[in-house]
Amino acid sequence: MKALTRIQWVLLPTVVLLSGCLGNSDSPVPVSVASSGITYSGVTTPAFVTSGNAAALLSGALQGGQTGNAFGSIAALSGAAAPHRARTLLVSQTLAQILEQLDFSALKPSAAAVNNVSNQLAGNCGGQAAYTGIADDASRQFYATFTFSNYCQDGTTFSGSATASGQVDSLLGFSSLSVSFTSLTIASLGDTFTANGYEIITPAAGAFTVKLNVLLQDGASNRVYRFDQLLFTVQQGSGLVDLSITSGRYYDPRYGYIDLTTPTVLVINDGDYWPSSGILTGTGFNSSATVTALSNTVYQLDVDSNGDGTTDFTATGLWNSL
After folding, report:
1. Count of structural domains within the chain
2. Is residue 181 part of a domain?
3. Which pLDDT value is given to residue 18?
4. Contact status, residue 248 vs residue 261, Cβ threshold 8 Å
């Protein structure tokens, strides 16, 4: 299952929705997602990026919506609690940990049978996740459904359902993977939200590429944030992860959407919440802004509010104040 261990970094804010279909041709076994009741009813036009909203837009793109509950690093916490993670990363990490435990040992490539796969998995801090599905000997394709019952993993609790499909390689690792999650309720360190989305993961040597759509509803404000057609690559290094965003949109219900890219790769050290280097750019209507990681605690914000290519507002601040 070596291929799947890399998936735990999927979705670093970055990180999306059912209103934009990714296309079944990218998935070996199409996955359908039922309506969760979560809808995005905010502004759907390009945002006018200004000095007043640029920080909220770009930090929301990094956090998975405005959470007001971020920690800078493990060192910022007392006790044994794990650091808060971006919402999209929390979702992907836990789903990846579950999928790593799927048992395909019954597969026999020389046979032509369809095998049933099922199990119940206990969370390391309570609750359980149950799955059931099928795996094909000849094609090595699989399909499984999951039910989370207050499943708690490393301080994060999941309730709801998900489906997964994909292709197993000759070593019983994943050569491709599609995951959809419907009305997942997640609680972590006081942050509660509901996620509804779909992702296609393509592993490569030392890295993987993700296509992602998701809706995220904040449990306190009930605001729904949206990422649409997000395409990014994650590469795991020694003690850090590199994140490159090729394209995709982040929607804030108050301001509208910005198109995301990373002119310089974002580098996030293990244990940190915010990047220590790199640049994220968000482009709205005849306006744009960039946030540059000066360190894992300090950022610089540059805004071009009239689209003339010249910065007309610059500020620096602490990541954990966003």
Report:
1. 1
2. yes
3. 30
4. no
Residue 224 lies in a domain: yes
pLDDT in tens, 239-288: 888 888 999 999 999 999 999 999 999 998 887 888 999 999 999 999 99
Q: Among residues 166, 31, 168, 179, which one has the least CA distance to residue 104?
A: 168
Residue-number span of the structural domain to which 236 is assigned: 2-34+44-321
39, part of any domain: no
Give strand ranges (E) for the chain.
114-122, 128-136, 141-153, 156-168, 174-188, 191-204, 207-218, 224-237, 240-252, 256-269, 277-283, 288-293, 298-304, 313-318
Measured in whole angstroms, how far is the alpha carbon of residue 130 from the centre of its chain? 22
- In the DSSP assignment, the letter for residue 13 is S
Q: Does residue 48 belong to any structural domain of this protein?
A: yes
Q: E-strand spans in 9-122?
A: 114-122
Residue 32: phi and psi, rounded to 5, are -100, 150
